[in-house]
Amino acid sequence: xxAVQRLVxxxxxxxxxxxxWLVKRLKGVPKTWVYRVIRSGEVRVNKGRADADTRVxxxxxxxxxxxxxxxxxxxxxxxxxxxxxxxxxxxxxxVDKPAGVAVHGGSGVSFGVIEQLRQARPLARFLELVHRLDxxxxxxxxxxxKRSALTALQDQFRGRATEKVYTALVFGAWPESLKVIDVPLxxxxxxxxxxxxxxxxGGHDAAQRSISLVRVKQRLTGxxxxxxxxxxxxxxxxRTHQIRVHLASHGHPIVGDPKYGDFAANKSLxxxxxxxxxxxxxxxxxxxxxxxxxxxxxxxxxxADCARLLEPAAVRGHSRP
Length: 321
Fold this sequence. Notes:
This protein has helices spanning 18-25, 31-40, 113-120, 147-158, 242-249, 263-273, 304-314, and strands at 5-8, 44-45, 48-49, 61-64, 85-88, 92-97, 128-129, 138-144, 163-171, 180-182, 185-189, 195-199, 211-221, 227-235, 280-288, 295-299, 318-319. It is built from seven helices and 17 strands.
């Protein structure tokens, strides 16, 4: 039977949130279990109760209740892979993630970007994801090559000091006047354990405030005569599925979205054009360099299949810079 563990925080882990520290140490343990035992007080920091956002310090003793650990993941079947490089130095790495590739393994996915990069760089002492993108979303993905860089960059993301702009193609004519979406989002699980996100009224205890800024880039007529709008969406909060749910909740789902989209419209467009995935691209991230403080503007070009979908329609629409 599993026993209580008493773990000590090392220097490399100092400054991490308690929940993130536990998730990294307890490989394969569901996050829901981690948050439950923190809330119940079964996790103790130096013999005292602590919240999920408590910052751990070097030398802290963490009491962890009995838990069955997953078997170490076999990495022998993970193919090494490098991804298109947008920026790299000794502190961080920015790649252009292709659509259809998960950022990490789990939930039925054997491996993702992080596992493949680690296999491709066996001498790398440290390599961690700074943030995440949905599997079907392409574009800029940041990874840290030092613990100090990871902490600094994640602090920027939490403090909303980053600029994150996405390109999204939606069905319908997006209203010119609708430029700010400030609607709370609530995460739920269905009977099969699949995660869903929905908009809720303000004041809901478990909901999170979510803000998206929307700008029309292009209006066009797509294959088969459907009306489409190309949007630039800047997110001020980084909630799960935020852009997808915000846009769909206003009646303009993202083209190809398999979860929150218009399934009939997706099927019709795919038949007419051959484009069968979600059109959401992380086009730009602005961050301060974790060591120098220099402002970095990291950009990923629109994928070729997305660009092709826009080409014939652009003649009939009008574009904006």
